[in-house]
Each structure stands twice: as structure tokens, then as C-alpha cells.
Amino acid sequence: MSGQDPSAIVAKGRMGPLQIAAVFLCILLNAVDGFDVLAISFASPSIAKEWGIDRATLGIVLSMELIGMAFGSVLIGGLADRVGRRPVILGCTLVMASGMFAASHAGDVATLSAFRFYTGLGIGGMLASVNAMVAEYANDRYKHLSVTIMAAGFPIGAVAGGSVATQLLAQFGWHSVFLLGAAATLSLFPLIFFLMPESISYLARVRPKGALEKINKTLARMGHPGVTELPPRADSAPPANWSQLFSRRWLATTVALTVAYFAHIMAFYYILKWIPKIVVDMGHPPPLAGDVLVWANVGGACGAIVLGLASQKIGVRSLVVVCLIVSAVMISVFGFGSDSLGQLSRIAAFTGFFTNAAVVGLYAIMASTLPTELRAGGTGFVIGIGRGGAALGPIIAGFLFAAGSGLLTVSVLMALGSALAAIAVLLLPRHREAEAVV
């Protein structure tokens, strides 16, 4: 096929085994991301008891990898648009595995915080890169579904890993939780190396040395016909950079996406980071508190999958706005608390359902709104700045609790983030080329 755009071949063709395998691998990567992020949440009650940490200090510790994720998403996400998705994903896997291993050997708050920040750098870069990779490996028909199911890997990893972590906590202590994360993360490295070629969209845009040969090799592995030559470049514009995110064309989109993600993720991580400590402070043992967090992630996984399926029939923006509004309500309901672990688990599950459905819906909006040349960098920027909200959530809650605020007051204040995010999504501009898929 002479001069045909290889990206169009992937977008319009069927999903071959390699594409399905790559998307599934991205789901697994997001799953280990989910466990690596929440490992500190499972371990925090035991760490706080062993080291005598107060709530304000614990809030800072809980946020350190989120701060690292902010830097990693912005800096490493942009790097993926310049050097490729595949090398960044491989590098981030090694950073995450080594950071989790190092955290298991921490002996004080400062050391643990440093290792969690380092781990967060890898997680942030990974999130931006796999979001772009899935969007570029999936065809147009299954793009939304692939991105949302990929995002569902995050709570699935927290559920699977958390179920094991609660058993490890009871028998071996908090150190074992981080060792589990290190082993699970490192095990994916060879799978990435052999089953995840570089994105064809990236190769077709950047055109490194041997691009045509690499593209045809990957197309053949996907079961698609090759091309004899690459089509002419659309224009002679310089390579994409962050300044384009703030051009007249993309500024309003960048601001709306960033505000929405920042505000909602602050509320989202308040729930995920503080559940175990809140439940322990109600008088329940740490392993049972971990079970409540697992149920929050069971709900989150279900929410992501349901949203992905619903997005095949209903516009993603409408779904996300509804989920954000219900998220604000459920986070407030969580603030009433309960003496019953069963009831707490049910509330946590429903809260997780809507909060995580909104998060994965935002990922889908990013993937389909931003163009290929800005997708990883733009997603990285939005996620990176948004992670500032993720880090602020646990910290603000910690200081509010330390100042004497009750659970209901803190929960209602944090729920306002989801309400603000709903407004930002409603104000998100529609770009002509994206209207058919958003």
C-alpha cells in the first residue's frame, strides 16, 4: 500500500492479537501502579503505630508519591512524546520496582518519604505513557473502551494486591507490602520488552531512523498490511512542545481538563489515602481497615468497567458529569461514618464506583481530545498538575483532622472538588475532529 497512513490502518482496521496483548499489558501496568500508589495506605496504620506518627505528619507521608507523580507525569510524560512511549515505559517500570524495594527498608519518616517520592516519579511517567500507548494501539471502534478498561486496572491492582497485603500485614508486617509491589512491578519488565513495540502513531509522526522498517514490522505482527512508503508530512511545523498546549487553539481545553482533573483527584485521593486510618481510629484492627479500602477499589473497578461499556452508547462527557456529581454526594455520605464495618464497606464501594468512573472518564476525554503530537505530553501535563490536587487532598485532610475538624466536615469540604470538576467538564470546548468520539 503506497503512501497510506499507517496510523489510519491501525485506527480503521480490526484489533489484532498483538494490539489486544499490548492493551492488556497496559492494564497490568496500571494495576501495579494502583497497588504501588496505595501500598502506603495499607501500610500506614502499622507505620503510624510503630513510629508514633501524628495525623498531620502521616498526611504528608501519604502524599509523597503523589507529589512525585506530579513531577513524573509532567516531565516524563513530555519525554515520551520526544523519545517514544516504549523506552519511557520500560524505564518507569525499573524506577517503580526499585523504589518499592527501597521503601521496604526505610527506617524513618524522611527516608520513607524520599523513596515514595522517587517511586511516584516512575508512576507518574507510566500513567501518561500507557494512556497514550493504549489510545494509539486501539482502533477507533474500541478506543474509548480500551482506555477506560486500562484505567480500571488501577483499582483492580489495588483489590488484588490489597487482598494479599492484608494477609501479609497480619503475618509479616508493613515491610512485606512494599516487597510485594516491587516483585509484581519487576515481573512485567520482560513482557513489555517482548510484547510492546513502539507506537505506530509515534513512529509515523517523529520518523526516527528506520521508521518505515519498524512500522512495517509492527504492522505485520498486528496482522495488517504494510506500506511501501510513508505519506508526506501534514506540514513542516516544528515538533510539538508544551507551548502548543497554551496556544489559542488548545488553551481553553488545557485549562478545563487540568481544573477538572485537579479538583476531582483531590477528593478521590482523600478517600483512598485516609480510609484505613479513619477505620482504625474507629477502633477496628488494621487488616480489617484494609478490607474496607479493598471494597472501595472493588467499587472503583466496577465503575471503570461500567463507564467503559456505557461509553459505547452514551457520550463520555455526559457520563463523567453525572459521575462527578454523584461522587460529591457519596464522599459527603462517607463523612457520616458508621460503627458497622459492613456498612462502611458498602459506602466505600459506592463511593469508589463513582469517583473512579469519573477518573477513567477523564482519561478517555484526554485521549480523544488531544491530538497525537500532544497526547502523552498533554496528558502528562494535565495529570502532573492534577497530582498536585492528589497530593493536597491527604495533606489538607490531615491538617483539618489535626485541627479538630470532624469526619463529616472534612468529607463535605473535600467533596466540593468533585462538584467543581463537573463544572469544568461542562465548560470543556469541543474540537471539530474530536466531536465524533467524545
Which descriptors would you attach to this protein?
single chain; 438 residues; mainly alpha; Growth Hormone, Chain: A; 16 helices; 0% strand; globular; disordered C terminus
Explain the overall architecture.
The chain is mainly alpha-helical. It has one domain (about 5-220, about 240-435): Up-down Bundle (Growth Hormone, Chain: A), CATH 1.20.1250.20. The protein contains 16 helices and no strands. It has helices at about 5-10, 15-50, 55-85, 85-105, 110-135, 145-170, 175-185, 190-195, 200-205, 210-220, 250-280, 285-310, 315-335, 340-370, 370-400, 405-425. The protein is globular and about 70 Å long. The two termini are about 30 Å apart.
Based on the structure, what is the oligomeric state of the protein chains? single chain
Mean pLDDT: 86
**Biggest β-sheet, characterized?**
none
Total DSSP helices:
16
Helix content percent band: over 70%
State Rg.
21 Å
Global outline = globular
**SSE order, one letter for each helix or strand:** HHHHHHHHHHHHHHHH
CATH topology-level name = Growth Hormone, Chain: A
Query: Which structural class do the helices and strands define?
Result: mainly alpha
Compute the separation of the termini in Å. 31 Å
What is the CATH class designation? Mainly Alpha
Give the total of domains.
1
Q: Which consecutive residue ranges, at least 5 long each, have pLDDT under 50?
A: 235-239, 432-438
Count of distinct strands: 0
**CATH superfamily assignment?**
MFS general substrate transporter like domains
Query: Under the CATH scheme, which architecture would be assigned?
Result: Up-down Bundle
Strand content: under 5%
